[in-house]
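Recap from last week: sequence in, structure out.
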Amino acid sequence: MALQSPEAPLRKLMGPGPLDIHPRVYQALTSPVIGHMDPAYFKTLDRVAEGLRQVFQTQNKVTHATPGTGTSGMEACVANLMEPADPVLVCVHGYFGDRVRQMAERQEADVTVIEGEWGRPTDPQRVEEALKAKAYKVITVVHAETSTGVLQPMDDIVRLAKENGVMILLDAVTSLGGVELKTDEWGVDAAYSCSQKCIGAPPGLAPVTFSDRAIEAARSRKHPIRSWYLDITLLEKYWGSAPRAYHHTSSSTLNYAILEALLLIEEEGLQNRFDRHLKNHRALVAGAEAMGLEMLVKPEHRLPTLNTIRVPEGVDEAGVRGYLLEKLNLEIGAGLGALAGQVWRVGLMGYSSSAENVLFFLSAISRALAVQGCKTDLPAGQDAAMSLLDAD
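Predicted structure tokens:
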């Protein structure tokens, strides 16, 4: 059978990621491929690092993007900070908190889990009780739980970690670049994200940042870091040492793209970007609720970048997603784990967080539900959304 060029359909991406990217980022992807040890490329890597420091709101020297998706960033943080018998407190209130647990167990850490209800944040009182009962090296927290659409309040957990001298490992996969993330102010020691969500680039890179304390912990381990590829003590010698030490064949194409995305963030301004994501989120929620749909998460804990909508009773959840994809070229996400079949996950991140996408989604979901005999009040939904979108 002869090889054929792939035919990629033009979709509107409004799931949990990847999302649509800005035309300038697409253009950056067409830049010439150059070598991973080229002095010109090192300048690009330096600019990427500086852009990520701004978005992470940190001065951490070791701030860059590991090769791979957000899971590579997760594994980099876990593998470098944890070793056998290390006492680790893992906060789980969704699918990805549990993935951190699995990784920590593979490092043979001494893992204690605070298991919370999916759709609610981790209760800081339970964290306080755990810290009183035992001394821990690391506490892991999911800032933005992609499976549930929950934004974890950080103030109390940050205070408790500082009072007890515990390092914070933070999952910022669905918050970095779309929601306030104060790495240095909060005292976060290691955090990871991904390129394809709020940052606004294609998949393939995982932004990470490590504090000086975290780097020292990695260097002074009793056991070798179990991942050679994600060993931060090796990666930092490629990312920023003089002279640079070869580590892996870094993708110039992906780094050109993430650099352009970071330049777009800088031009917009972080606070303006946070405000845009919040405004569009509120408009989508107002529209969905006015139509008669129900959100999973309580208002005070909703993640502005990822909206979880309950599937109405009697509706074929997969059938709705299939209709949207086949008829309207619109992709939204299904529920994961305990929420499989119960919710839709609707992303408003980066370039995809727009008033146009809010209104398109409301009309699209209304039609998809109508096909199954589930009626919604679309005019009321559009009016509710527009009343917020029109506001200054």
